[in-house]
Amino acid sequence: MTIKIALIQLRVVDSKEKNLKNAIDLIRIAKKEKEANVVVLPECFNAPYTADTLLNVAEEIPTGETCRALSNAARDYGVHVVGGSIVESFSGRLYNTCTVWGPEGDLVATYRKVHLCDSSLSGKMTVAETKLFTAGSKYATFTVGETRIGLGICWDMRFAEFATAYRTMGCDLLIYPAVCDVPTGEQHWELLAKARALDNQAFVAFCSPARDTHAKLIPYGHSLVVDPWGRIIQRATEFQEIVVADLLLKELSDVRKRIPVFEQKRNDLYDLKVGCS
Questions:
Q1: pLDDT tops 80 at residue 122
Q2: Who's near 258: CB < 8 A, 6+ residues apart?
Q3: How crowded is the C-beta side of 81, counted as CA atoms within 13 Å?
Q4: Biggest CA-to-CA distance, the chain
Q5: Taking Cα atoms as reference points, which of 101, 100, 39, 29 lies closest to residue 245?
Q6: What is the C-alpha to C-alpha distance for residues 19 and 66, in angstroms, rounded to an integer?
Q7: How far apart are CA 17 and CA 109, in angstroms?
Q8: Number of folded domains in the chain?
Q9: Per the domain annotation, does 145 fall within a domain?
Q10: What are the residue numbers of the active site?
Q11: Residue ranges of the CN hydrolase domain (predicted)?
Q12: Does residue 276 sit within a domain?
């Protein structure tokens, strides 16, 4: 089985209802017209990325409005839906959480963002995530056919060890829904995607919202897919669009055979202890 992935770079507006309708319409197009079997939405796709708006759209998983809409879309169109992320309310705490829905509408994976971001290259703090969210503490994977897929959210992309853990688990594709501002995106977006793919000899997908110059945090856009050689195989503009890529899974064995870095790792040296010289 091959993976045909569609990254939905949608424009987020100040209406949960409109964002959900737009997302469902684009999922339909990605499946029916683009023939994707994995569809990905951006981080916090159902509300603008500000503390007030995110608080207002918090919901429980899997019973909330957004979850029901994604479940129905996955079932109606027979496709895996990686639901970007939403604000999850659970036991009095909030999490930045990605849900994944199978073609039968079932919840097949839930991932709570592990690395919370309190930094902004532009110098403008939009959301201090450690004040709003509780960090997750678990990895999350799911499979499409024989392909195992690992999940991260935005800031997670900066942590090489995190991605390598997924590769060690057998993941061949890493998916990161993300909201990245323009100054950060211009310097690091492409570089990070290539690094995570090349380091781990895996496919990597970053999915951003479309750029909105009136937003408090202006998303960078340019959702992209990188192959295990570190080459960009598809990339969006900054506008709302669907990016589709066929993942040639046979490239995985080729690159891993020709550059066998995972067989050459010196794990006996990497677990440093405090005070080692």
A1: no
A2: none
A3: 32
A4: 59
A5: 39
A6: 10
A7: 24
A8: 1
A9: yes
A10: 43, 113, 154
A11: 3-249
A12: no
Q: Is the separation of the CB atoms in 160 and 194 below 8 Å?
A: no
The secondary structure of residue 219, as a DSSP letter, is B
Sequence-ordered strand ranges (E) for the chain: 3-9, 38-40, 80-82, 86-90, 93-101, 107-112, 141-144, 147-151, 173-177, 203-207, 224-226, 232-235, 241-247
pLDDT digits (tens, 9 = 90+) for 191-231: 999 999 999 999 999 999 999 999 989 999 999 999 999 99
β-strand 38-40 against 80-82: which pairing, if any?
parallel
Residue span of the structural domain in which 247 resides:
2-258
3-state helix, strand, coil in the chain (%, to 5): 30, 25, 45
Helix (H, G, I), strand (E, B) or coil at 58: coil
Q: Is residue 205 classed as helix, strand or coil in its secondary structure?
A: strand
Q: How much is the CA Rg of the chain, to the nearest whole Å?
A: 18
Q: 129-164, pLDDT tens digit by residue?
A: 999 999 999 999 999 999 999 999 999 999 999 999
Tell me the pLDDT tens digit for each residue of 28-81: 999 999 999 999 999 999 999 999 999 999 999 999 999 999 999 999 999 999
Alpha-carbon 259 to chain mean position? 27
Residue 266 falls within a domain, yes or no? no
Confidence band of 120 (pLDDT split at 50, 70, 90): low
pLDDT of 118: 84
Residues 22/212, Cβ–Cβ less than 8 Å: no
266, amino acid identity: R
Predicted confidence at residue 2, as pLDDT, reads 84
> If DSSP codes are grouped into helix, strand and coil, which group holds residue 103?
coil
Q: Is residue 269 part of a domain?
A: no
Residue 275 reports pLDDT greater than 70: no
Q: What is the CATH number of the domain that holds 182?
A: 3.60.110.10
